[in-house]
Structures are given as structure tokens and as C-alpha cells.
């Protein structure tokens, strides 16, 4: 969102003595890093192959090569190897949501990699639809897999304990990353756990990763009803949990936010944020085996 400028994100990341969940702690050092998104090869469906063959056409697989990406890596205090969380930003790129969650997760004992999906692609803002199609949630799912491959190469990270978490457009990217077709196309294993905050929910295939979806019932940017519909329709077995917070709008977990953008309300909701923090911490502890 335009009001959440990138310079605020950087400043907050560099503050010393940041307040995280009521406790003052020294902000862990952040490091700019570079890596590539995962590549993917998508085979044409049998139906498309059959239709094309009737016309004498041979369909070739779609090749999606990896592209150079950037990010910010924040390490927790203590000795590794650490579990890690990959953060996927929303439609305005890196913003204060990333800095707040990076600080919080690091204080909980996680390494955090905030992926910048936009700057390397020459993008900055997709919220108004002006750049729709230039980078899709499916493509950004490949960014998340590339980030995981990078983290897995570091001695300080436990490659068996990596989760992915995103909000809004990044939340939709998380939902793409946990569906069966994307890991297969990217030739990579599923994430250990996934969290999507107020994502745009669409019909989902078989989910292969435990996922926690959090959204407010007052959110008009996306639809809690859609999320409920599509989670209910998921084929069994699955480990998908949806929590809908009463009275909460888009960006309910971003402290200090209270504004209107493109006709939609973006507003911090203290009680919903408190509950979301508890749910997320418990969820990560359960799936990444980190004691509270």
C-alpha cells in the first residue's frame, strides 16, 4: 500500500531497542542477501496434448527459469542451526508489516528472510491493478522456494525446519506454494508449515503443507467467505485451519495502521492481532518443534 513506504521499512529494521511483544530487545542485525527464485517445468495436461495433436501440434513443456532476487535476512540471538520463516510481502512490496513480523519472529527464535519479489522485476506497487499479470502468486511461490533453497545452504539454518508466511498478495503466493502442483513443478519438497494472512483465496488443489489462514470478517479487500468456502471444499486429508476475527479489517496485525486506500479500510485491530500472534506462535512451535 502506497502509504507504507519502503524507507520506513528499512528504518524500523535498523532501530535498536525495538519493542517486540512488550519486551525491549536489541534488534538483531539484518543482512541484504541475493539468491534466485526456483525454476519450474510444467508439462501440458493430457487434455491439452490431445487437443493439440488433433491439429498436428506438439506441445512442449513450459520452462520457467529462476530469476535473481533480493531479500533481507534477520538472525535471532543464540546458537544455530535455527528454524526459519520466509516472509512474502503484499502488493506494495516490502513495508512495515515485514519489519514488525521480522522483529517478532526473530525474538521468538526464528531466522527470517523477507523476500523482495518486486524490486528485481522493476515493480513497486500492484495494489491498483496497474501491473496485474507482471508477477503472479504462482510465480512468487517460486520465489519462496528459491528463498528456501538459499536458506538451506546456510550452516546457521536447519533446512528441515523452514516455514513460509505471507500477507495479502503474499498470502495468495503462500497458498500457491503449498498446493500439490507447485512443489512438483518446481522439483522441490513441501514447506514444513505455512501461514497466510488475509489472502485472496481461490479454489485449491490438494494441500500438501499444514497451513494457518487468518482473516478479518470486515475485510473487503479480500473475502473471508471465499476462504471459508474453499477450505471447506479441500479434499481430505488436509491440515488447513481458518480463523476469522470479528471486527477486523485488512492489515489488522500491522500496528499503527489506520487508513483508507483505494476505497478499502486498512486498520490495526489490537485484539485480533494479539490472538493472531498467539495462534501463529503456537502453530510454528508445533510444526517447527521450537519450545516457547
Salient structural properties:
single chain; alpha/beta; 8-stranded mixed sheet; two-stranded antiparallel sheet
Topology summary:
Elements: H1 6-14, E1 18-20, E2 23-25, E3 30-36, E4 40-42, H2 46-54, E5 62-64, E6 68-74, E7 82-88, H3 96-107, E8 111-116, H4 137-152, E9 157-167, H5 169-177, H6 181-185, E10 193-197, E11 211-216, H7 224-232, E12 240-245, E13 258-261, E14 264-267, H8 270-288
Parallel strand pairs: 7-8, 7-9, 9-10, 10-11, 11-12
Antiparallel strand pairs: 1-2, 3-6, 4-5, 6-8, 13-14
Helix pairs in contact: 1-3, 4-5
What is the gist of this entry?
With 292 residues, this protein is α/β, with parallel strands linked by helices. It has one domain: Rossmann fold, CATH 3.40.50.1820.
Characterization of this structure:
The chain is 30% helix and 26% strand. It is globular. The chain has helices at residues 6-14, 46-54, 96-107, 137-152, 169-177, 181-185, 224-232, 270-288, and strands spanning 18-20, 23-25, 30-36, 40-42, 62-64, 68-74, 82-88, 111-116, 157-167, 193-197, 211-216, 240-245, 258-261, 264-267. Helix 1 (6-14) packs parallel to helix 3 (96-107) and helix 4 crosses helix 5. An 8-stranded mixed sheet has the order 3-6-8-7-9-10-11-12, with helices on both faces. It contains 8 helices and 14 strands.
